[in-house]
Specification:
With 107 residues, the protein is of the alpha+beta class. It has one domain (2-106): Pdz3 Domain, CATH 2.30.42. Helix content is 27%, strand content 36%. Strands 1, 2, 3, 4, 5, 6, 7 and 8 form an eight-stranded mixed beta sheet that branches. Strand 5 and strand 6 form a beta hairpin. The longest helix is centred in the C-terminal third of the chain and has 14 residues, at 72-85.
Length: 107
């Protein structure tokens, strides 16, 4: 993953993303850990290499992908599916009580 210096968007390799869709167990090899918070959103419990590359910090709440709220397993699955369907993605996180928009581009 790289960062586009002009836009600040994180650029995700399309082949890598496809390999994750084919074998999501690869995600288990990283220390990154999410847990469901009381709000139903997912919280970054442990920031491993994957979370760091994605711009996530320990304690971040993953709130929405492209405006679709990420709550519970259903919301998580819908959000994950969006990554395979789009070339540009916005993720809204709540960091220290402040909304932060993280931008991603799939190439």
């Amino acid at each position: 993953m790289t960062i586009d210096p002009a836009t600040g968007a994180r650029v995700i390799d399309a082949d890598f993303l496809q390999s994750l869709e084919d074998n999501p167990n690869q995600l288990l090899a990283d220390e990154t850990s999410l847990r469901q918070a009381g709000s139903g959103h997912y919280e970054v419990a442990v920031q491993g290499e994957l979370a760091a590359a994605l711009g996530w910090k320990q304690g971040d709440l993953l709130v929405a992908v492209e405006g679709l709220e990420i709550k519970g397993v259903g919301g998580y699955v819908e959000a994950y599916t969006l990554f395979g369907q789009r070339t540009a993605i916005e993720l809204t996180v709540l960091r220290g009580g402040v909304e932060v928009i993280l931008e991603y581009r799939v190439e």
